[in-house]
Amino acid sequence: MSTGPAILIVDDERTLARAIRAYLTEAGYLAEVADDAEAALALLPALRPDVIVTDVRLPGMTGIDLLRKVREFDPGIATVVMTAHGTIEGAVEAIKLGAFDYLKKPLDLEELKLMVDRARQAGAREQELSYYRTRAVRDLPFADLIGRSPAMQAVLERARHIAALDETPPVLITGETGTGKGLIARTIHTSGARGNQPFIDVNCTALPGSLMEAELFGYERGAFTDAKESKLGLFEAAEGGFIFLDEIGDVELALQGKLLKAIEERVVRRVGGVRDRKIDVRILAATNRDLEQESARDRFRRDLYFRLAVILLRLPPLRERGDDVLLLAEHYLQRFAAKYGRDVRRLHPESRAQLLAYAWPGNVRELSHVMERAVLWARGGEVTPAELGLPDAGRRPSGALEPLVRTGEMAVSLGDTGERRLPVEPAGERPTLEAVERSLLEQALRETGGNQTRAAQRLGISRDTLRYRMKKHGLGG
Ligand SMILES: Nc1ncnc2c1ncn2[C@@H]1O[C@H](COP(=O)(O)OP(=O)(O)OP(=O)(O)O)[C@@H](O)[C@H]1O
Ligand SMILES: [Mg+2]
Fold first, then answer.
1. Which residues contact ligand 1 via a Cβ below 6 A?
2. What is the CATH number of domain 405-477?
3. 51 phi and psi, to 5 degrees?
4. Which of 5, 142, 207, 271 could tie 50 with a disulfide, CB 3.0–4.6 Å?
5. What is the pTM of this model?
6. 46 Cβ partners below 8 Å, 6+ apart?
7. Choice from 149, 173, 174, 179 to test ligand 1 binding pocket (greatest atom count within 8 A of CB)
């Protein structure tokens, strides 16, 4: 039994197909030949090929239709198409259908073998991805958005509406950090007709502009020094499904124009390419910045903002959701109690009052952290205020409608080292809790030479908590 990867070659030119088989067998592959698409399909269940190399033009069912059937059978099988010189159309269609790449005839067998290797690796990745995708769908209680407050009901109603439409302009999801922008984007995807199509999540902060462009739009071979081969961009990879441009406010101005073109004209052009490729992709974008303001200051293109903001989904901060705080707290209480096998069931009435009074600058994410910690610390079946450990400083004075802490401001003030004091306590002689906390953070960071992991250990908190608190105090990381 060969243990090498299994390759299925589909071509009615028998001499060629056999030559490929001999070459690949020699190289340690398990290679099989089929004369036409029907024969190939019949072989699938037994052979379970890693890669299929097929001619586009076949007697009977075409190579393109074969690709469709193969995808239905198992999207993890990588496919490569072969086209006779000069007929590129079939290849383009094949790529759109998810083929890994195409080869031009006459074939170079060494080139074919290299491509099969790459396709197989990509196929393995795809298999992992589809595993994550189905797993995400199965974890649906997670995706269930909790919220009965009128503010949330209005948002959910809109989101359901958006999910039900198959064709919509882009949707811009706004809201402070941790309000559930990512969650609602994924829910729109999974609950709509394109739920089984790709959902490509792009964090726009992660890469500098030039790399981002190559990631989003792909590139052609030779576009730059390292481009030894052409690469599909994320827009093309999202074909038929969604692309989620998270933190879109961080996209560099130079790239914003290209994004606008992709959105308006529904085409992308690879870096170094000469041809526009049509795409059928729904666009979701999210930001925790005020893009309207940024565009007024020329930090974000106005035309792109207006294009994106046609449909706006604004997630209210947690402090504007009334009793949803308690609903969510109880949800997390149950979840973490089950996760850690702890018999914690209730919230002390005073804890409930504190949860309602707190300003939640980190919103639902912060609440989940607070509840996780509380479940771990709780000594009895009821979580006491001490076990919640909410900082006093974030509390809203009764009657105040304006939140004291706005995450937007915190994000903007990153790197600003000026003392930030919340107006909750008058600045008197005695140091505020804020000031003490800040100096503890500074001390720990100083003593560990800025190493966040070690500083967090020293303070007995998680790295996330440290980061959150550094951000809160405007201590740049
Ligand atoms: N209404 C909700 N019901 C249940 N869970 C929620 C809800 N809103 C948010 N969450 C959970 O809170 C966490 C933070 O949500 P998410 O990551 O979607 O926020 P975000 O707005 O994208 O934050 P950021 O701006 O920092 O990226 C996630 O674990 C998410 O599942
Ligand atoms: Mg997010």
1. 145-147, 175, 177-183, 288, 364-365, 368
2. 1.10.10.60
3. -140, 140
4. 5
5. 0.59
6. none
7. 179
* Two tokens, residue 186: 């994924």
Q: Please state, as a whole number, how many other Cβ atoms lie within 10 Å of the Cβ of residue 343.
A: 8
Mean local confidence (pLDDT), 140-147? 62
Tell me the CATH class for 159-314: alpha beta
Question: 6-135, what's its fold?
Answer: Rossmann fold (3.40.50)
Q: Across residues 125-151, what is the average pLDDT?
A: 59
Three-state DSSP state, 182: helix
Q: What is the pLDDT of residues 175-199, one digit of tens each?
A: 999 999 999 999 999 888 888 889 9
Predicted pLDDT at 124: 65
| Helix pair angle (181-191, 150-164), 10° resolution | 40
- Looking at domain 318-390, its CATH architecture is Orthogonal Bundle (1.10)
Q: Which residues of 25-63 are buried (b: 16+ CB within 10 A; e: fewer)?
A: eebebbbbbbbbbebbbebbeebebbbbbbbbebeeebb
- Measure the CA dihedral 413/419/420/421, to 10°: 180
> 169 CA distance to ligand 2 centroid (A)?
21
Count of H helices and E strands in the chain? 21, 16
Ligand nearest to the CA of 287: 1
Domain ranges of the chain: 6-135, 159-314, 318-390, 405-477
pLDDT tens figures, 62-120: 999 999 999 888 877 899 999 876 666 677 778 777 788 888 888 888 889 988 988 88
Distance 92 CA to ligand 1 centre (A): 38
Domains 159-314 and 318-390 share a fold: no
* Rounded Cα gap, residues 235 and 273, in angstroms: 15
Nearest atom of ligand 1 to the alpha carbon of 182: 18
What DSSP state is assigned to residue 322? T
Residue 209 has pLDDT above 80, yes or no: no
* Rounded-to-integer distance, Cα 314 and Cα 286, Å: 10
* pLDDT classification of 410: cutoffs 50, 70, 90: very low
What are the structure tokens assigned to 416, written together? 């600003």
- Minimum-distance ligand 1 atom for the alpha carbon of 183: 18
